[in-house]
Amino acid sequence: MSKVILIGSPNSGKSLLFNRLTGLHQKVANFPGITVDVGIGRIQSLPDLQLVDFPGTYSLQAISAEERVAVEQFERALADPEVCQVLCIIDATRLEKSLYFTLQVIRDCERHGKRVTVLANMIDVLAAHDLTLDVDGLATALHTTVLPLSARKGQGVDALLAHLREGASRTAAAPRAHLVDTPDVLLRGTAHQLAHRYGPQGDILVRSQTRLDAFFLHSLTGGVAFFAIMYLLFQSIFTWSAPAMDAVEAILGGLANLLVPMIGNRVVQDFTADALFGGIGAFLVFVPQIFVLTFVIGLLEDSGYMARAALICHKPLRLFGLTGKSFIPMLSGVACAIPGIYAARAIDSPRKRLLTYMAIPLMPCSARLPVYTLLIAAFIPSGTALGGLVGWQGLAMFGIYFFGMFCGLLVTGLVSRTSADHYTDLPFVLELPPYRLPALHPLLRNAWNRSRHFITKAGKIIFTVTLVVWVLGYFPNFGADLGQSWLGRLGHLVEPVFAPLGLDWRYGVAIFTSFLAREVFVGTLGTIFGIEAADENMAPLVEHIQASDMTIASGLALLVFFAIALQCVSTVAILAKESESTGLAVKMVVGYFAFAYAAALLAYHLAASFA
Predict the structure, then answer these.
(1) 497 contacts: CB under 8 Å, gap ≥ 6
(2) Averaged pLDDT, 222-238
(3) How far is residue 266 CA from its own chain's centroid?
(4) Alpha carbon of 567 to those of 359, 463, 482: distances in Å?
C-alpha cells in the first residue's frame, strides 16, 4: 500500500485536515504540544492510500520531544519506498514562518527523490479579510505544486483528492533538485523573500490580533477576562456535566434494579450489585466530566485563548517550578484529577509536565467533597462570625481547599529546587496563535474519543481493584459482617498504623476502601455503623461519629490526611498510562501517603495541645 506523509507546523490545521481525509479521531488543537503521536489512517476516498500524520514541528532541527518524534519519523519515512508523496501544510496567514519549514521539507525530499505538494491552508481567513495569496507564483518559485484549501470548511479538499488520485495512478517523477545543498541560514532568508513577494499584502490580520491581545493581555481587563473565563470553565466541569452524571447514575441504578433480582445465585447477585454496579459505576460517573472538560478546553485551545491564559499564569507558577501551561490541568484537577492529568498533555516540557503530574492529585477534587462535608459537619460548629458574614464550616471548607492547593505548589517547588535537571529542561517558548472560530464537530468527536479512551484503558485496572476490594469485604462470611470479613481483619491489622492519629480499625477500613474512589469513605463508614445510604443522608452518620470516641484532633488529622493522600485507583491508572511510568504512579502513592501521615500526625498533636 502506498503511503502519503502529512507534515506541518503546529496550528497550521494539519490534524484537522487529517481528520477530514481519514475520518479518524485525531486531536485538533491551537496550542503547542497537543499532537504527540503519529496518526495513521486510510484516505476515505482513496482506500489504497495510507495517510501518515506526524506531530507538528516548527523546524527539522528538533528541540522538544514532540519535534524529535516528528523529525525522526519523517527522516525514516523518506527512506521508505512505499512513501509516494509528502504533503506539507502551511498557514497562509503566517506565510514566512511556514515557508522556512516548508523549504527544509522540500530540500530533504529532493535528497530522497520524493515528491512534495504544498497545501496553503486557511484561505477562507484570507478571503474574509479581502487578502490574496499568489498561489501560481509561489508554486513556480518552489518548483512544486501548491494547492489552496481550507481544512476547516473543506474548500479545496476535492482538488487535493483529485491530485492524490492522479499522482497514485502514475509513476512518480524525481523532483527538480534546486535546494539540495542549501543551508538553513539561506533557507530562512529565502522564506522571508518568498513571503514578501507572494504572500498576502497588508497587516489586517496582525492589527486584528493586536487589538484583541490589548484586551486579553492587559493587566486589568486581561485579568478580569481570565478569571471570568476560568470561572465558566470551572462551572462547566461541575454544573454542565451534572445532568449527564445524574443520568449515568440513574441508568446504572435502573439496570441494577432490573438485572440483580433476576440472578438466582446469592454470591453472583451480591457481586453484580456491589462490585459491578456499585464499584464500576464509581468511575463511569466521571465520564461526563471528562467529555465536558475536553470539549471546553478544546474550545479555548482552538480559539487561541489557551496560549494567552498560559502566558498570564506563567510568571506566578514558575516560582514553584511549573509553567503557565500547568494552570489548566491543575484547575481541572479541582473537579477531578483524571481530566486534569489528560489536560497536562498540552505541556511540551517533559520536566514541567512531570511536576504538573505531581501537583494535580493534591488539588481538592470533587470526590473529596463528601469526606470534607462529613468531617466538617461532625467537628466544626455551625456558628457564624462578623454578623453572619462568615460561617465557621464554610471557612473550614475554604481552608481545606486552599491547604490542598498550597501542598501541591509546595511539593513542586521543593522538587524543582532539588532536581538536577535545571539545565536540561526546555525553555518556556509559546507561540500566540491567531484568534479563530473553533470547528465544533472535531471538538465533539475528540471529546467523545477521550471519554471512550478513559473507559477502555482505565476500566481494566479499575475493575481488577474493584474485584479485589469486593472479595476482601465479602468473604468469608458472605457480607454478613464487614468487621469480620477479610477486609475487616485487614482493618484490625492496620489499626496500629492509624492509632497515633486517634483512629480505630473502622476508619482504617474506610481509608483502605477509599482507594477505589475517595467518596467511598462515607459509604464504608455508613456500612460499618449500620446506616443505610449514608452517602446520601449524612446526618445519622454525623451523629454516630460525634457519639463515638473520635476527638476533634482526630477529625482534623483525618481532614489533613485526606487532603494530601489517597489518589484513587482511577487517578493512579491514568497517571501510569499518561506518564508511561508505573513506577512514578507507585512512588507518588507511597510518597503522598508518607507526607499525608506526617502532616496529619503534626495536625493531631497541635490540635490536641490546644484542646
Answers:
(1) 508
(2) 76
(3) 41
(4) 12, 16, 23
For residue 512, pLDDT beyond 50: yes
Question: Does residue 430 form part of some domain?
Answer: no
The count of structural domains within the chain is 2
The pLDDT tens digits for 424-450 are 455 666 667 777 778 787 788 778 877
Looking at the predicted structure, is the pLDDT value of residue 212 above 90?
no
- Rounded CA gap, 91 and 121, in Å? 5
In the block, cell 507538528 appears at 56
Q: Calculate the dihedral angle through the C-alpha atoms of 379, 383, 388, 393, rounding to the nearest 10 degrees.
A: 10
Full domain range(s) for residue 481: 457-610
More confident residue, 421 or 406: 406
pLDDT beyond 80 at 115: yes
CA 191 to chain centre: 36
Residue 290 lies in a domain: no
Q: Check if the beta carbon of residue 123 is closer than 8 Å to that of residue 149.
A: yes
Measured CA to CA, the distance from residue 550 to residue 407 in angstroms comes to 26
Q: Considering the domain boundaries, does residue 508 fall inside one?
A: yes
pLDDT the model gives residue 410: 93
Backbone φ and ψ for 155, nearest 5 degrees, come out as -65, 135
Q: What is the pLDDT of residue 36?
A: 47
Peptide bond just before 476 cis, omega within 30 deg: yes
Domain boundary among 176, 202, 228: 202
**CA–CA separation, 81 vs 211, rounded Å?**
49
Q: What is the DSSP letter of 156?
A: T
Q: Using alpha carbons, list the distances in angstroms from residue 83 to 55, 103, 319, 563.
A: 17, 19, 47, 53
Radius of gyration of the chain (CA): 28
Q: Which stretch of 150-164, 166-180, 310-324, 509-523 has the lowest confidence by average pLDDT?
A: 166-180
Whether pTM exceeds 0.70: no
Least confident among 70-84, 514-528, 553-567? 514-528
Q: Which residues pair with 146 in a beta bridge?
A: 118
Supply φ then ψ for residue 425, to 5 degrees: -80, 160
- Interaxial angle between packed helices 204-216 and 305-317, expressed in degrees from 0 to 180 and rounded to the nearest 10: 40
Instruction: Supply the CATH number for residue 117's domain.
Output: 3.40.50.300
- Structure-block grid coordinates of residue 170: 502514475
402 inside domain: no
- Confidence check: pLDDT of 422 > 50: no
- As a residue count, the chain comes to 611
Helices 392-418 and 552-564 cross at an angle (nearest 10°) of 50
